[in-house]
C-alpha cells in the first residue's frame, strides 16, 4: 500500500509564525513598524538597537509572520532597588542603549512591546510576554517590571484624571489596547508614573508601573520545595450537531470554541471526529457515498478556517477529522493546526464496518507522532484507539498525549472508545483526551444521531486524578472541558509508579514491530 498523494497542497493553507531573537537586519522593518504603531514618537536609532543586541541579545525578541516582521519586544536586566528611578524612562533604559544592563540582575525591565496594526487581534503581545516570562523562569529572574503606556487615555483626559481612567480600565468599563492586555497577562498595577515619556501624546506622558512575579524563582542558597511541573492545558469540545444554512454559520460555531480556548490559554483544543458532517445539513440530499465526497470539496475552506483560528487565538487545534479525497480515494483525516501556522495530518487507519458500508472510506498508511511546542503527541481517530498496538508504537516514538476525536451514535459505541482510551493511559503512562459530537442531523444518513461525553483521562495512580478522570463533560450537553496535565508526572510515574507497565513488559516473550506501508514496502 503506497502513501496517498494529496489532491491539494496543504502548504497553501499554512502560515509561518516565528518567534525569535532580534537581529540587526531587522532594523528597517522595526522602524517602519514603530512609525506605524507610535506615529508621535521618535523611532529607535540603529545605534540604540545595536547597543541593545550587544548588551542583552536574548532580551530582544521579534515575531515574524510569513517572512514579515509583525511584533517586537525589548528589555534589560537590573538588580531591584527601591531607590532606582523607575519613573524615569531615560535613566532606567539608558535612553534606549541599555548600557546599564546587569547580566546577574534579578529584575527584567521591559522597555517596549509593539505589534503591527495589521496583525492585532492575533494575541502576539501574549506570545511576547510569554517569551519574557520563560526567560525569567529559565534564568531564575525574580520579577518583571514594565512602564506601560495608556494610549486610550487621551480620549478621556479632559473629563478625568489618569488614575480614574486606569481604575475604569481595570474594572472593565474602558478598554485600553495596552493596559488591558498587560492585566490579562498577569501584571499587577503598582502605581502611576507622570512625565514618563512626554512625547507619548496618546498617554499624555503617563505610564503605569506594573509588576509580574516569577513564582518559580528560588533565592540563592534556598532549597526548592516546590515540585517541578511541565503543565499543558487541554480543551476538549463536546460539539452539538445542528442544521446550519452555510459554511459561515458552521465556522461561527467552531470559532466560538476556539475563542474560549484562547481566553483560557489552552495549549491544545480538540474537536470531534467528522464534526464537519454538519455541513451536510445544507448540501443537496445525496446517497451517503456521494454526500461524503461532496463534503470533501469543502477541504480548502476547512483548512483555511482552522489554520487562521490556531494562529489568531494562539492555540494548537486538533481539528477533529474531515473527509478528504486523495488518489480518488476517500479518507477520514485528522489535521493538527499548530499555533505557529504549520499543519500536520493523521489518517484514520482502522475503518469501521459502518464507514465502509455507507461512505466507502479507505484506511490510511500509518501512525504518526507529531512534534509540537508542548512535546510529541499522537492523534488516533475514534476506532483507532481500540487497537492497543497503535498507542504502543506512538509511545515508543515519544508521544505523551494521545488525542482521540470520536463520533459515536449511542452509549455502547461511546463506551468502547472511552474504555479503550482509559486502558491506553494505564498501559503506556500517557494522557488521553477524547472529544465527540452530540445532537442530531435529521435526514443525514449515517450522521443523524450522536452520543458523547468528552473527557481528559489520566493514568490510575495516587499522583493523578481520582478514577483517572481529569475532566469530564456531562453527557450530550454542548460544552468544552479544560484540564491541565503535567508531563513531569508521567516521567515520574513511569519510573516510580505503583505499577510500571511500560518497564515491566516481557520483551523476551513478545515484541511489537511496525510494518512500513509507504513506497510499496
Automatic annotation (TrEMBL):
SUPFAM superfamilies: Acyl-CoA N-acyltransferases (Nat) (SSF55729), Carbon-nitrogen hydrolase (SSF56317)
Stored InterPro entries: Acyl_CoA_acyltransferase, C-N_Hydrolase, C-N_Hydrolase_sf, GNAT_dom
GO molecular function, a single term: hydrolase activity
Keyword Hydrolase on entry: yes
Keyword check for Hydrolase: yes
PROSITE patterns, per the entry: CN_HYDROLASE, GNAT
Top-rank taxon, per record: Bacteria
Location of the CN hydrolase domain: 232-487
Record keywords: Hydrolase
Residue ranges occupied by any N-acetyltransferase domain in the UniProt entry: 17-216
Annotated Pfam families: Acetyltransf_1 (PF00583), CN_hydrolase (PF00795)
Transmembrane stretches, start-end: none
Protein name: Amidohydrolase
Source organism (scientific name): Rhodopirellula europaea 6C
High-level lineage: Bacteria, Pseudomonadati, Planctomycetota, Planctomycetia, Pirellulales
